[in-house]
Structures are given as C-alpha cells and as structure tokens.
Amino acid sequence: MLPGLFVPEACQWLSTTAGRVALEGYSWMQAVHWVAGSGLYKPRRHRSHGPRAFGPTTVLVAQELALLFPCRPGIEYLRRRTGLSERTVEYHLGMLREAGLLAYVVRGTRIRGEKAQASHFARVIPPEFDQALGIRTVLRDDTDPEYMRAPCGIAEVGRELMAKLAAKAARKVRKPRSKTGSKGSGKRSRKGAQQGLAAGVSGEARCTPMQVGTSAVFSAGGTHSPPEEKLASGEAKSPVPKKSTKRAGGRPKQNKVGRRFQLAGELVQELDWLRGCSMPRIAWVARGVADAGWTVTDVRAWLHLRGEVTRVRRGSGLLAVLLAEAESILDTPAKRTEAIEQWRGAQEAARRHRIEQIRARTERYDGDWTGPVSHRVQQEVAAAFAKVREVVNGGRAAAADGEGIVIYAETTPAAPGVQGLRDEEIAQTRNDARQRLMMGDTSPITMAVDTLGRPEAEQLYGPALVRRGLQLAHGARSSLMTYGHR
Q: What is the pLDDT of residues 193-233, one digit of tens each?
C-alpha cells in the first residue's frame, strides 16, 4: 500500500524535489496516467475549492505540457489550446505540482508596467511511480544531483501495467463534451473539429515551439462568389468589411475600467505621496472622477483647492477623503477649467517666491559687506537697520533724530581681536554661534574667518566649531548637499 500523493509548496522546486526528471514527454505521460488511475492524489484533502479529482481535464493540460521543450507555458497559451478558463488552468497546474509531476525551475513574475513572464517547469516522475512498478534507477555520474536518476530496469510485475500506461500515453485526450442532447452535441462537435483544424494550421505563436505543422488543404481553393439573384435580393452578405471598432494601433477602445487604471497610473506618477500605493486600489478610489471624465490635471487642481498635504500616513486613504464629492462640486468643464487656472496661478506665485528667496540668500552671503562678529553687535546692527526701514517707510521713527542711528553705525566695525572680550562674552558668543550652526547658519563663523583670520576665529569660537562651520559652508555650495529645517 502506497501513501497518498502530496508535495508541499516548499518541495515543488527542482532543487528540492524527491522525484526524477523525465527524459521526454512520452515517459512523463505514462506517469501522469498512472497518477490519474491510482487515486493516490485527492485534491480535496488539502483544499476546499477547485477540482475534486485528478481526471481527464488534468490529463488534457498535461498533454499540452508534454509537447513543449523547454516546458515554459503561459496561462494564456494553455487557455487557447485547451479551451479552458484561466482559473481552471491555474487549478490543474497546481494539481500537477502537488502530485509531484511538475517542479519549478524558474517561477514566473508579474511586475507592474511590464509583460508577465511565464514559469519554467521541469517534468518530474514521482518516486511512488518507480516504487509501484518496480523501476530501478541509477545515477550515471556521482556529481549529478539526485533528480538526474535514470531508469535501468523494471520488475516483472510492473511490465504489464507499463504496457497499459504506454497505450494510454500514445492516445490523445480530448476535451470532455458537455452533457446536452445528441443532436446539438453533434453540431457542436463538428464545429469544434473545424475550429481545431483551423487552430492547428493557424499562425498562432507557441510559447516554446517544438514542431511545425503543414496542411495540404488550402482555404482559397474552396471560395466561390454567391449567385447574382442572392446578391439582388440582399440575402448574401456584402463583401465590404465593416468598420473596425479598434484604434489605429490595433488595440481596442478603452472601457470604463481602463480609464480608471490609466488615471490611477498618472496619479501615482504625478503625486509623490502616492508612490508605492496599489494601482488597483487607487483606481477604485478614483473611480468617481475617472467615470466623470476627469484628467490628472483636473484632479491636481481639485487637490490644490482642498489644501496642500505635509504628512501622509496612508496615501490611498487620504486620496479617498480628498476626492469625496469632487465630481458633484466641479460638475462642469467650466468649473474644472477655473480650478486649473487657480492651481497654475498658485504654482507660478510659488515659483516666484522661491526665486526671490534664492536671490535674497545670494545677496546676503555673496555681498561685499561683512557683518560684525559679536552676537550683541549683530543685534544692535539689526535694530539700527529696522529703524532705518521705519524712517524710509514713514514710521514712528521718522520724527526722531538720527543720533541713535549714527551711534549704531559707529559700533559696526568688528573688534581687532578677542583680547578685549571677557570670558562670559566669549562663552555667550560661542553658544550663539553653536545654536545658529545647528540651524544651518554659518555666517558668524565664516565672517569671523574672513575678517579676523582663522587663528583669531579659532580663539573666539574654538577649533572644532570653526572646522564644522567651514565644512557646512563649503557643502552648501555643492548641489549634492542640502540642509535646513524639517
């Protein structure tokens, strides 16, 4: 008595399989028919859905796999060849792996935005088959892996069963008929035979072609023109082809679901806080605006009206909240156009503001004027400039005399050294420079180095603080380094 057949998912790879690789498709089909007739593999023992038994449909799928070399079938290819649905093909491929008849060499991939890659399988004969028929195997080379074992003999008790399996492997399995009346089934069988003949001689691309078929029947030899009386009465079909509903490139027109996914892809590319989100989920969230005919520009304009976001925890959830009732508020193209104009105007204003900031920063750090070194003197200079601006603008300080301004202007020159400063002032100056350096402002240190020289600046601020400030100042001029507030 043999145990039940079942191979767990971890052992469904060629490197972990306990079986041996079949030398060709014919011997592998013998093992497939043996598994189908033995009843050792029962799918419903390990799952609650899918086919109930290893039957003719599984043998039909295996029959197509036996013709491929290398065995690299696509789901779409097997669906066309067998006439089964995509889900059914996936079920039976999984059954073949669980029965120990298939093993992964390379597992297929499905990457977003790229073409899906088919899995590469190895046709494997399970060890239970060799045990039941008394087949002896040997490893030709000691350096080969265990799955490269080759048969070298068979027991007498297994020869009769092997002959029966050979007869089954030589026959072709057809797709099971539907249980309907004999008259209708006869018509459908003839129609299916004609379609099968057409599929055999058509130019469809095989995923791994191993043979080329030819046919001596030419379809052009049997064509004839309809009689004139049928053309006059309108019974015959017109030879003029109908207009195609496809695009110029040969692809069909985009439906509702396609428009949703197209808008979702554009949103993921345009909005940084949607990067990494699931494309189907974004398409479902944006289904309302996509069905209303919105473009990615319309969505961005609406998001600008709702407000800018600074911190995002879950992009798809935030997008669902922001797009709530959007299609009912901006329900006309005129309203959406107005929103787009406001959004573009805000973008232009932000661009100009950034230019002004960069220009002011450049004038501040690249000008000829050097500010004072002491933090206290810097505060006095800032207060003097503030009074000057008030006088120019006609403020309260306009009526006052300018003596205070002159006094402040006279105190702007920096001290020639640090000998005249007390220890408390030096400590306060270092503390202020350290705090400004943590905020990214290196102006006190750079001005001290330019005005007093590096030795005097190191006496005032310390060698470590001066070295760190100069490093940040040099790094700020590089495009590879940025710093600022978070």
A: 344 433 333 344 444 444 333 333 334 444 444 454 444 44
Q: Which of 483, 479, 379 is nearest to 432 (CA)?
A: 379
DSSP 84: -
Long-range pairs for 301-308 at CB < 8 Å and ≥24 separation? Answer: 301/336, 301/339, 301/340, 301/342, 301/343, 302/326, 302/330, 302/336, 302/339, 303/271, 304/339, 304/342, 304/343, 304/346, 305/339, 305/342, 305/343
Classified as helix, coil or strand, 162 is helix
Residue 285 tokens, joined:
């969230």
Cβ pair 268, 274 in contact under 8 A: yes
Q: Which structural domain range is residue 49 located in?
A: 9-170
Interhelix angle 56-66/86-98, rounded to 10 degrees, is 80
Number of separate domains in the chain:
3
Q: Is residue 440 part of a domain?
A: yes
Is the Cβ–Cβ distance between 79 and 86 less than 8 Å? yes
Q: Do 14 and 156 have their domain in common?
A: yes
End-to-end CA distance of the chain: 72
> pLDDT tens digits for 389-448?
665 555 554 444 444 433 333 333 434 445 667 788 888 888 888 888 887 788 888 888
Between the CA atoms of 470, 473, 477 and 480, what dihedral angle is there, to the nearest 10 degrees? 90
Same domain for 34 and 166, yes or no, is yes
CA distance 365 to 71: 68
The reply to whether 421 and 299 lie within a common domain is no
